[in-house]
Design brief:
about 140 residues, 2 domains
Length: about 140
């Protein structure tokens, strides 16, 4: 029977705090944007029922979501950042493994490297498939 103390478990799995917090921040951001757009749609519905033209600020909130993903530069910069981070985490995983570090660190660095590599690849695809500003 293996007996692990709380300190041992924390030492082995502390790195899980970072992806969990990252997912929580992403979920909060998505929910916040959803709520903002939902409120803007409700205001737009009220103006449509009255037969009036809505203010430009309401239309701007609704257009923000479709414009946000069309910027080519942000995808390339995201790909570069994720790529550099993926290489760094892969290097940490290899270095920790070669120097006989704990398996939890090697696993954590490897998971981070693979995840950031996937983010890098998705940003490259997004940058290559995004319409150019003059194509709209």
């Amino acid at each position: 029977m293996i007996d692990h103390s709380g300190a041992d478990l924390f030492r082995q799995f502390f790195w899980l705090i970072f992806p969990i917090l990252g997912m929580g921040m992403g979920a909060f951001s998505i929910w916040n944007e959803f709520s903002r757009q939902k409120k803007a749609l409700e205001v737009l519905k009220v103006y449509a029922e009255k037969g009036q033209e809505p203010p430009a600020s309401v239309l701007e909130v609704l257009n923000r979501a479709s414009i946000r993903h069309r910027r080519r530069g942000s995808s390339w910069s995201g790909a570069a950042f994720a790529g550099v981070m993926a290489v760094g985490f892969a290097g940490l995983a290899i270095w920790t493994s070669v120097n006989g570090g704990p398996w939890s660190f090697v696993t954590g660095w490897t998971i981070a490297a693979v995840a950031l590599g996937a983010v890098c690849a998705s940003n490259v695809v997004a940058a290559l498939t995004a319409p150019r500003p003059n194509d709209q």
